[in-house]
Amino acid sequence: MTKRLAITASSAPIAREAKELLTAKYGNSSVEDADVIVALGGDGFMLSMLHANMATGKPVFGMNRGTVGFMMNEFRVDDLPDRIEQSEAQELHPLRMQATTFTGETVQHLAINEVSLLRETRQAAKISITVDNKVRMPELIGDGLLIATPAGSTAYNLSARGPIIPLGSGVLALTPISAFRPRRWRGALLPHDAIVDLDIRDSDKRPVSAVADMREVRDVQKVRISEARDVTLNLLFDQEHNLAERIFAEQFAD
After folding, report:
1. Contact 145, 177 (CB under 8 A)
2. What is the domain extent for residue 112?
3. Is 193 helix (H, G, I), strand (E, B) or coil?
4. How would you write the pLDDT of the chain (254 residues) with one tens digit per residue?
5. Is 230 a catalytic residue?
6. Number of structural domains, the chain?
7. Of 33, 35, 43, 204, which residue is the catalytic one?
8. Cα–Cα distance for residue pair 90/112, rounded to 1 Å
9. Same domain, 175 and 71
10. Which end of the chain is more exposed for a tag (fewer CB within 10 A), N or C?
């Protein structure tokens, strides 16, 4: 049975043109009626589509009409239904961020790549790190820190010199951002089911924001991060170039 496709595209002209070509060849269903969502753009657009359709659980097949396209398949017009039928599914669980602000408001967001804490002013942030109710670092001083999933370990985490994590490894990366003290600390690998509590010290003088992918909460007092096992994302990849292989290959890149 032919799957109904919802063909979506970023605002880039090359993505819009690709959408027109695919729609003329395969038709275009609404996201509500579709079996598979086809995302045309770059990694940023893929993240936005995953967030927008997280509640549906519908699989997403991306094709690169952007820049990096790490989470995307190669763009081709022909044989799209066959490619989707033969694709490999990769299940991902996002991180759940619960951030409490100065005013006592608690805001919750999900992150597919990472949750990052960042200083808001020229003053370095001071952050206490607790893992599973045990204080592991009473005070980290620096620009901030992040917790990355395996899928997100090749993004901001890698730029901050964090480790690349293979899919299925069952760990998360806790990576400092420009740490001043302790100067030689390079971060830690945590079990995927760890609960991380981050408390901001001197928050009135050294304000910190918390960001779950592209969603920011300003002036946080404390942040709890855990894996959202109740949420499952389904990405589809061509067999010859699946996400697990891409992440593994990045460990040997120049």
Report:
1. yes
2. 95-227
3. coil
4. 578 999 999 999 999 999 999 999 999 999 999 999 999 999 999 999 999 998 888 999 999 998 877 889 999 999 999 999 999 998 999 999 999 999 999 999 999 999 999 999 999 999 999 999 999 999 999 999 999 999 999 999 999 999 999 888 899 999 999 999 998 899 999 999 999 999 999 999 999 999 999 999 999 999 999 999 999 999 999 987 777 887 888 888 76
5. no
6. 2
7. 43
8. 13
9. no
10. C
In this structure, the answer to whether residues 44 and 123 fall within a common structural domain is: no
Residues 101 and 64 in one domain: no
pTM assigned to the model? 0.89
For residues 140 and 53, membership in a common domain is answered with no
Q: Give the integer Cα–Cα distance in Å for 96 and 109.
A: 6
Same domain, 86 and 99: no
Other beta carbons within 10 Å of 164: 18
